[in-house]
Amino acid sequence: MTGPAVPAVPVADLPPDAALLDVRENDEWEAGHAPGARHLPMSELTARLDELPDDDPLYVVCRAGGRSARVVAYLAGQGYPAVNVDGGMQTWAAQGREVVTDNGNPPEII
After folding, report:
1. Active-site positions?
2. Exposed (0-12), middle (13-18) or buried (19+): which is 80, by Cβ within 10 Å?
3. What is the 3-state secondary structure (H, E, C) of the chain?
4. Which domains does the chain have, with CATH numbers?
5. Environment class of residue 9 by beta-carbon count within 10 Å: exposed (0-12), middle (13-18) or buried (19+)?
6. Cβ atoms within 10 Å, residue 43
7. What's the confidence (pLDDT) of residue 55?
8. 20 to 30 Å CA-CA from 80: which of 48, 50, 52, 64?
């Protein structure tokens, strides 16, 4: 049984100025993330809702798209304009988009 469909966009169709919220866990973020993305792990989301940026829409990304879809469904239920990034960071990297780290290590998607 599946839940209601959530707004989604393929990585290839993301606007150049898309406001990205990465909901992966800390180790995944540290291994590699999109430049300019903001980080708020899914496991901390409900406790940190006040930290959500006020972008409209907010593009939510995880490793493959599953966690971000759940976050988008939750945020939509709260009336927050969020869109799931289909394929997540795996597709982002596979399409040759830039992946960065904050610690100087070579970036990877884990």
Report:
1. 62
2. middle
3. CCCCCCCEEEHHHCCCCCEEEECCCHHHHHHCECCCCEECCHHHCHHHHHHCCCCCCEEEECCCCHHHHHHHHHHHHCCCCEEEEECHHHHHHHCCCCCECCCCCCCCCC
4. 8-94 (3.40.250.10)
5. middle
6. 12
7. 86
8. 64
Copy the structure tokens of residue 23. 């909901």
User: What is the rounded radius of gyration, in angstroms, for the C-alpha atoms of the chain?
Assistant: 13
Token readout for 92 is: 């982002």
Q: Give CA 78 to chain center in angstroms.
A: 18
Structure-token pair, residue 86: 């289909």
8 A C-beta contact, residue 76 and residue 82: yes
CB atoms within 10 A of CB 30: 16
> Looking at the whole model, is its pTM more than 0.90?
yes
